Amino acid sequence: MATHAHCIVCFDALYSDLVKQSLPSWDSNKKGLKSEYDAAREAWRRPLSLVEVEKSWTLYKSQMITKKLPALERLAQNASVGASGSSDSSGTSTPSSGSSTSLLPRSGSTSASGGASAVDTPATSTTSLPDHEPVTESPLFVTWDTETRSGAKELRGCIGTFETLPLEEGLPSYARTSAFDDHRFDPVSFSELSSLVASVTLLTNFETAASWDDWEVGKHGIKIRVSHNGRSYSATYLPQVAEEQEWDHEQTLSSLMRKAGFRGDWKKVPFQTTRYQGKKVELEWKEYKAWRDWDDARRAQQKQQS
Questions:
Q1: Residues in domain AMMECR1 (predicted)?
Q2: What average pLDDT score do residues 163-167 get?
Q3: Model confidence, pTM
């Protein structure tokens, strides 16, 4: 299944491309442009490999938990004291459901320029992290959305492949393709970065459906293929689409046929329906940027110590 590290790889690929595109032309006789060039160039770095990102993200999460634990323990103790002082009927108490145990900072609170950084926490090292067998290749889709001030999401690009690809190559490739080459939309621009949300879906369990409605809304994605009057039509919807749009089977197929470009009565022509599964994982820009600032600071500290 997809992970937040997969989303980070997509953001890294997009960010590096957008920064390089935004680099101003540098004329050595114009000092103002040089400082602008240097600032933009400094914002870019070599994207990390997927393995490096997986290790860094796991370490980042563990250190965020470590930083939150003392506060959570104090909340639990205060709740316990309050409960014992007001009632003898319960011997235990738990923190209020309103307290958050989110692994991610909700703002840019983890910064390389901050005084006390997560880099200062030595409790966990990458060598002590649990071993796991991550997925290394898969069919995949990368989706870019922008989040409005009201919290609504607007699609900016979604392109993928049903071919099984190494994720190390497929994720950055389709991150760029989805952002720049989805012809339904203008290419994603540098000014949109702060509002972007990256989503990755790894596709599994492909099956030929017994009928056009032999699939479950919210569980299956579907791909249709129609051959009619010497022409072929095909299109797909990811597993989350029908549920998000509140469509039933017939509404989904009608929309999918239009997406494929077929304008006839789809109930009167034979076509193939393939169903598949895949859970979408997403990451907001501010979450990516908080991790990236933390990781840049950690690597700078390691370089100084070496």
A1: 95-292
A2: 97
A3: 0.74
